[in-house]
Specification:
This protein is α+β, with helices and mostly antiparallel strands. It is built from four helices and two strands. The protein has a two-stranded parallel sheet. It starts with a helix and ends with a helix.
Length: 101
C-alpha cells in the first residue's frame, strides 16, 4: 500500500502516522472535509460527513477501486418515496418545508 500510494501521489495516513484514525473522524479534524466536495470512502459512516456540507457516499471496496481508477462513481436513479404526515404540523415546520405540493 505504501508503494502504491507513493507512486500514485496519494496521501497515506500510515499506521504510525499521528494523523491516522477512523476516516469519518480524521477527515473533518484534519481539514480534508470541506463544504461542497464529494467524498467516497469504504466506510459505512461516510454519509455522516454530509453534516459538513459535502456529498458523501459510503461504498464497498470494488467501488473505491473504481473511483481511484476513474474518478467516477456509477449511481443508479433512486426510487421515489412517499411520505404521509398525519396530524397537524408544529412550528417551525410548515407545509412548504415538508413537501413540494
Amino acid at each position: 500500500m505504501r508503494k502504491n500510494a507513493l507512486g500514485a501521489g496519494v496521501a497515506l495516513f500510515d499506521i504510525n502516522d499521528p494523523r491516522q484514525g477512523i476516516v469519518h473522524i480524521i477527515g473533518p479534524e484534519s481539514g480534508l472535509v470541506q463544504p461542497g466536495i464529494t467524498i467516497v470512502c469504504g466506510d459505512s459512516h461516510t454519509g455522516t460527513l454530509g453534516a459538513f456540507g459535502t456529498i458523501a457516499f459510503g461504498v464497498g471496496t470494488s467501488e473505491v477501486e473504481h473511483v481511484l481508477a476513474t474518478q467516477t462513481l456509477w449511481q443508479g436513479m433512486p426510487r421515489g418515496m412517499r411520505v404521509i404526515v398525519n396530524g397537524a404540523l408544529r412550528s417551525p415546520v410548515a407545509r412548504r418545508t415538508s413537501s413540494s405540493r
